[in-house]
Amino acid sequence: MLYPRLTNCPECANIPSLLKKIDCKLAELGNSLYNNISYMLNQPIAAGDIIQLIAYKRILMYKYVNPNYAQYYSISRIASKVMLLTIGCDIKSEYIPTVRETTTTTTTPCPTTTTTTTSLLTLKLLFNSIETLNSLVLDPYDVSNWNDLFDTVGGTPYSSVEIIYTEVSSVEIIYAEVILHGGANVKIPNHSIGVSGLMSIIDDSESIIEIYDAAFSIGNSLLTVVVLNGVTVGGDNLFNTEGIYPISRFEMNNLEIVGSNFINGFRGTLTTLNLPKLTTSSGFLVNSSSVTSISAPLLQTIGNSGLIYTGNVTSYYFPSLINLGSSVLYNSVFEGVNYRTLTLTIPSALMTNNAGGPDGDIVALTTYNTVTIITT
Predict the structure, then answer these.
(1) Which helix (H) or strand (E) holds 61?
(2) Which residue has the higher pLDDT, 125 or 221?
(3) Cα 325 to Cα 269: distance, rounded to the nearest angstrom
(4) Which pLDDT score, from 0 to 100, does residue 36 have?
(5) Per-chain mean pLDDT for the chain
(6) Which of 203, 216, 10, 32 is CA-nearest to residue 125?
(7) pLDDT of residue 349
(8) How many C-beta atoms lie closer than 10 Å to residue 275's C-beta?
(9) Vertex 8 angle, CA 70 and 27, to 5°
(10) Centroid of chain to Cα 288
(11) Rounded to 5, what percent of the chain is helix, strand, coil?
(12) CA dist list (Å): 31 to 28, 45, 92
């Protein structure tokens, strides 16, 4: 049996390039099939090619994360077939460099000493499947599609994208991690990445500075890790679900202002919610069955009903708080927090701001709970 081989093929060892060629040809064949049905063209469709391309795509995706998978089928052998099957789809191979920021310092008059530091700060998004990834953007290998998904107006668009696939043990699941380089002053638009298959978002580069309403809202979620320390402003309903977020790590250490319904549905292993820079929460702050401690040392304003349904919390640390609701009367701030033993740290002014007595919401809290109040 003779197999065709291509000897001048720089992209033959580049699996992402081969996958793009396959996707291109499948799209072309799918479009022809659609036109056949829509316009009754009765043109022949290479169904056999479609079946082969899908099979090769599956093998390549598995070989991308496990080079030993299907060892009998070498990359060059598959590439030869793919190149023949995808004739007409001219997708040039792309080399995506690893982005490194390098700084060099020289000391004189001593012998020249050069110190090089390397930074790999990026935005990483982990998805539970390739299908979830493809549901967000048309072509995940094209960084412009990710820039369109986010709001880069007034900021710096991401310059390159990498995608890493990881096969999960013996089950037929492939996680897809998207790594974006080079962005700055980026915003997350409304409802933009609220997909159930998003498992983590880690912004080591702190490229994201603002999140609009309902950006992560979804019926049920696999989201376990959120690290968005560049964000200073958040809208309403940012993490709001009727289901659950199995959160184990949550960092928004520079968040200063957030709208209502900030967190609703955290059901993971996260026990302490730290918001070290938060100054204003306009409404409902958090509903979580796992969180037992909330710390916001700079928080000055909590909106009405701001801490309802925080019945599992045993420690509230708000040493800078000025406004507990819209007035000094009862504003339902702690509604639903009943029959608990807890600690509340607040400024002493809140114990006398209501005609010489405590704020109305503190009165309600102490009426239905055993509260140790620490004043600052």
Answers:
(1) helix 47-65
(2) 125
(3) 29
(4) 79
(5) 82
(6) 203
(7) 96
(8) 24
(9) 65
(10) 19
(11) 25, 25, 50
(12) 5, 10, 21
